Amino acid sequence: MQYTLVILLLPLLSFLLIGLLDSKLKPSLAGNLGTLSLAIIAALSYYCAFDYFTADRVNGVFQPVIMQMEWLRFSDSLHIDLGLLLDPISVMMLVVITTVSLMVHIYSLGYMKGETGFQRYYAFLSLFTFSMLGLVVATNIFQMYIFWELVGVSSYLLIGFYYTKPEAVAASKKAFIVTRFADLFFLIGILILSFYTQTFDFATLTAGNSNILSETAGATFLGASVLTWALALIFIGGAGKSAMFPLHVWLPDAMEGPTPVSALIHAATMVVAGVYLVARLFPVYFFYSPEVLAGIAVVGAFTSLYAAVVACVQTDIKRVLAFSTISQIGFMMVSLGASGFEGHEGLGYMASMFHLFTHAMFKALLFLGAGAIIHAVHSNEMSHMGGLRKYMPITHATFLIACLAIAGIFPLSGFFSKDEILAAVFHFCPILGVVMSFIAGLTAFYMFRLYYNIFWGEEHKHEHQPHEAPKLMTFPLIFLAAVTVVAGFIPFGHFVTADGMLYDIHIDMTVALSSTVVALIGIALATLMYRKPTQIPATLAKSSPGLYKAAMKRFYIDEFYLFVTKRVIFNCISRPLAWFDRHVIDATMDGLATITQQASVKIRGLQSGQLQRYVLVFLIGVLLAAAIAIIVYLA
Amino acid sequence: MNFLSIFVLIPTLMMLGLFLSKSRKQIQAVALTGASLLMIMAGVLTYLYLAERVAGNSAEMLFTADTVWYAPLNIHYSSGVDGVSVAMLLLSAIIVFTGVLASWKIDPLPKEFFLWFSLLSIGVFGFFITTDLFTMFMYYEIALIPMYLLIGLWGSGRKEYSAMKLTLMLMGGSAFILLGILGIYYGSGATTMNILELSKLHIPIELQRYFFPVVFLGFGVLGALFPFHTWSPDGHASAPTAVSMLHAGVLMKLGGYGCFRIAIYLLPEAAQELSWIFIVLTGISVVYGAFSAIVQTDLKYINAYSSVSHCGLVLFAILMLNRTAMTGAVMQMLSHGLMTALFFALIGMIYGRTHTRDIRELAGLMKVMPFLSVCYVIAGLASLGLPGLSGFVAEMTIFVGAFENPDIFHRVFTTIAVSSIVITAVYILRVVGKILYGKVENKHYLELTDAVWYEKFSVTVLIVAIVALGSAPLWVSNMISDSLIPVIGQLAR
User: What is the phi/psi pair of residue B68, to 5°?
Assistant: First the structure.
């Protein structure tokens, strides 16, 4: 399967080509070049998936394919390799990433048309695609970390694409620093893990019967095994990228970037890197540190609830989608945390990956749809929209499909993946299952609130008549909508499971029915409140102003961070430190110099050149010496 | 005289040529020819060195030569290189070359400037090729003195004060070094000052205890060891561009190199016993420098404090006393040398156009000078450790190496050092966001021009080196790592 290397190298090549030539290239050429290279690698990825999943299973599992070369050697046993690991989840991710990326490339040809820096935009898109692909096919955890940082920086560059806009600059900085902070823990986790196991290799780490891990599990630190510490720290890294509470603050702000970028990076691919990381190391988590896995479930559930509540009151459509993304990633995390390993027990893992797949498609669709709307009305605010269904029929239809999918309505893809997640969570802990079902209801509610506010409700007066987006933009919408409709019927358990064995999905009718009912209630409520302009939302907001305002302000998490960074770090650490450096340490050095100088000024008088004075001093000296000699002699 | 002496010979001939040259054109020609020759020779040396190693020559130092210089004190002119010195020579050649280009239009007194610049190069190259303690010390002094004049005459701001401060503090350090060298010489009872010979002898542990801190501190001052780093912000801020480049890029590496080659290699027992003192100090350096950089408003001060942090990491890694971390230390010297030179070059070019280095006054440069701005972003990304650029490779090697020490003390300080990666990101992105992005506020800036050919050339060379080291690190890291076996052998003795 040598050709898979091309999947990795082609985007890099296109980045270098477009990036180095930049404005020497005609914008259209740069765009077409990037899109063409993406089309090629998407085709290769589909072929690769076909090739991989039609190969024979050995002992019931698909055999991983590994190609790698040494990149940097630390010690005899520790070295970073760069290469490709093809196994069910990485092949699935290849398909997801190249599909969404291709759609975004095509869409951007229309959306970004005429923007300054069009070539730069495509160069960065290629860079991102390269980094993301490198991340998912990583053969070892350090390679993953390398590409992890690279996706971080591509995200930074793309969020800050409109670099003359202060909000965009601030948002890009925030995104990078928050995720960097999380990566610090990730790195320390890797260092601990590699110190005890002496390997970075995923294949060695996740091999079922490895002694390395059992030996490591023996060493403890502060009451928990070092392995638990390492895995918890690594998860924090994943939580940063995947915007888990309380490290989620960067994602809503990241919406300052161009909308197709939000669709690609901040909805479909990079933000699920944390989920992918946990899935990649799942056997290690499951067998050696179930307590961390339980913690992941709790973090995921809490984040999901938090984000869903906040999403209900946001008025910027991209912010609503951002919080919705956070909430849905929470679902994936919960599902992984609730998962077992074998057969039916491993349902959570399968469901999580399935949801990752379906969510990538319909959330990208939602963002691209939002982009088309923003393109039409030149605003992100809901209040500037309303009644758009007449003007933008294609966007409307595809957006509706995506909303129904995320709400979990049969037969759209979201129904299947969410249903399995709920089934797995109910199996793990019924209370958590109830909570997640409630969140599913909230999801349906806020998505339809969004939908009605954009396409129904009161029509806003526009300067220009809003019109449907050009074909380059509607094609990706239609394509992704089609995928959303059919993806649910993919027999996912035949491809991706926790233990790699074939597993047939059964729809759990009780869960399916109850979750559909909950979703319908959510939709019904939204219909009641937002389809036509009513006073209900305002009345509700008034009835509990504290809660409403807190949710609006995202429960003041951002303010807290701002306080810590600005007040504590900047004003209470850095400033005093800089002062200390100038006025204490440096002053000491200057002081030494001054003392030396003063001393020399004081004794300078002795070298006056006056003969009488020299003689006087000489005489006094002789007398003193004589006196001392006499005293010593007498004593 | 042997092949290696050519590195000292070329700058000497450069000085001669400069004496004779009359016009600016001639001066530039001589300087550029000399610098290019040095680059070529460094490349040739690297190739020859690696070829020898591949051919199976496993001697500790290659291309060794020895000439008696002053017999009564056993001072020899002896030279030889291992992987570490080859790496440092390569770095020095690159920085000297780009430094010449960066000061292409230096004014006034171009002739004198390049004369002192060449003398400085003699000191630097000589330091890295020699294996004799005394000769090494002599070259060290040769490298220091021109600095005073270069800053004092061609500098900006409080240049006399800064030049004096820098020279005095570094001279203070060299007093310690001299003391240490004499201690080693007499302590070992040797009849040689050759490092390779000295390493075979055993210096009593009682003496080592005295002289290890002395030597380490002496070189540490040059490596911006907390709390003896304050010459660095003032010195760098006042120095002309090329001097900042050479000073932060190469001269500060003399400190790290000396700590490693003399303090650790010749006094290994004391190093193991007393490393904790300096681990504490360097650990402080790393975060202290980074935190201080956050609030600075002068571009050069930011970079100087950032150097305190990065060079602190070099010394920190050396003190981890294992092969991985020490490899990382040398890689970090290379990486920091390249990127800090790039930073100073860019700051110089920006300052040359805007006449301010205050980040509060600069904004939106990306629109006005895209080439320089993009390069600045690349330098920033290298500095905050982006994979694919040199900083990442060096830092990761250091961290993995530091983690090989399993006790709580090392763990705590390693964690502190690792946390600097976040703080670095903060101050780098702060500057990038402030000066490059946003809208152009000062209307005069709209008329400014982007880089000209020699500036582009200089910056491009540095970026290519940074990318090369960062994306294909294996050969450098192996070359360095193989050369560390004798040092590790000393420590295990």
Answer: -70, 135
Classify residue A70 as left (phi > 0), alpha (psi -120 to 50) or beta. Answer: beta
Structure tokens at A72: 């940097």
The total domain count for chain B is 1
| pLDDT lower than 50: segments of chain B | none
- Which among B275, B288, B287 is positioned nearest to B317, based on CA atoms? B275
Domain of residue B423: give its range: 3-492
Which one of B291, B323, B387 has the shortest CB-CB distance to A150?
A: B387
A59 touches B at CB < 8 Å: no
Tell me the CA end-to-end span of chain A in Å, nearest whole number: 101
Percent of chain A scoring above 70 in pLDDT: 97
Q: Do B292 and A581 touch (CB under 8 A)?
A: yes
Distance from CA of B392 to the nearest CA of A (A): 9
pLDDT, one tens digit per residue, over A86-132 is 988 999 999 999 999 999 999 999 888 888 888 899 999 999 999 99
Q: Name the packing angle between helices B390-402 and B323-354 (round to 10°).
A: 150
Residue A389 has a CB neighbour count (10 Å cut-off) of: 17
Longest Cα–Cα distance in chain B: 69
A184–B421 C-beta distance less than 8 A = yes
The span from the CA of A147 to the CA of A71, in Å, is 14
Q: Given an 8 Å threshold on Cβ–Cβ distance, is B392 in contact with A149?
A: yes
| Residue A89 CB neighbour total at 10 angstroms | 20
ipTM: 0.92
Contacting residues of B for A70, CB less than 8 Å apart: 474
Reported as a pLDDT band with limits 50, 70 and 90, residue A216 is low
Beta strands (DSSP E) in A257-396 are: none
Nearest of B362, B374, B310, B317 to residue B336 by alpha carbon: B310
Residue of A22, A72, A186 to mutate, interface with B, max B Cβ within 10 Å: A72
User: CA–CA separation, A340 vs A166, rounded Å?
Assistant: 47
Residues in chain A within 8 Å Cβ distance of B366 = 163
Q: Which of B121, B127, B130, B119 is nearest to B96 (CA)?
A: B121
Per-residue pLDDT at A334 exceeds 90: yes
| pLDDT tier at A60, thresholds 50, 70, 90 | confident
- CB distance A72–B393 less than 8 Å? yes
Is the pLDDT score of A429 beyond 80? yes
Lowest mean pLDDT segment, chosen from A196-210, A229-243, A366-380, A610-624:
A196-210
Q: What is the β-pairing status of strands A220-221 and A224-225? A: antiparallel
Contact A198, A241 (CB under 8 A): no
Closest residue by Cα to residue A257 from A169, A161, A177: A161
A-B interface: how many C-beta pairs under 8 angstroms? 124
Model confidence at A208: pLDDT above 70: no
Report in angstroms the alpha-carbon separations of B143 from B117, B122, B128, B311.
Answer: 9, 7, 12, 19
